[in-house]
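Dear colleagues,

As part of the handover before I leave the project, I'm documenting each prediction I ran so the next person doesn't have to rerun anything. This entry is a single chain, and its sequence is reproduced below.
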Amino acid sequence: MNSRLTALAALLICAPAIGDDAVFIQVLGIAQDAGYPQTSCYQPHCMRAWENPELRRKASSIAVVDAVNKTKYLFDATPDMREQLYDLYRTAPDGEYLLDGVFLTHGHMGHYTGLMHIGREAVGASDIPVYAMPRMHSFLSSNGPWDQLVHLKNIELHAMEDGRAVELSSKVTVTPFLVPHRDEYTETVGYRIDGPNRSAVFIPDIDKWEMWESDIRDVVRAVDYALIDATFFKDGELGGRDMSKIKHPFVTESMDLLEGLSKEERARVIFIHMNHTNPLLIDGSPEQAAVERRGFRYAREGLRLDL
């Protein structure tokens, strides 16, 4: 049994078979921080999900499962972490796999507040490694209730540096890199994840591509999978709000920018982190068809990507 998450021991669901040498990413959530449907949204696009729980989507998060070393790693701790850990448990049971790290991208509600589920009011975990950049590290150490997790040793903070790789095993390396975003309390990072055979980047939140010193086209070319910010599909999506003040790259902008990539390179792009207004959340929508027609992909919960 994973001693760090003893409260999950009672779950007896059998996990799907995993090859002994498998290392892969599992998508645990695809929605923007507030999930889908969003609080107090009773418009038709949200009502469909209120009325049919099967249409609901959890906040953006991925996991890396390493069957060789019997470890699993969570990328972002969302408000939906309770359900996401259960989904991950069904794939990689706690009795067999150790939750050996949580990597945080930044200090917005959908990306770190799930840590509350491993505190004393919930699991009461012991020394779960939490990887954080300097400002994120300081924020968790200096502000309640998060500092209580540190003081009670529910979590063990591990400091990271921009561009410095974290070697988790001979099979998995994770490298954080700074990206521009609203950084009121912490910096924001994306991650490059290198497995034994393939690599990925995870960039759920970023400002417009032109505000980043890196060229997203080069980033896509350098990996096998690029899970990138798809908060909004296009301009005007928020009705009367001036979306020029919201810096996320629209999916339409990203597709236009990446249009010059080869067919094989475009297929590496997987859109994730969708606001409740984003029609990519609606199966069979014209927008989903448009993404596929142009050679790109969109994330679905449960998607596995071999590393």
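The longest strand covers residues 23-29. DSSP finds nine helices and 14 strands in the chain.

All the best with the project,
I.
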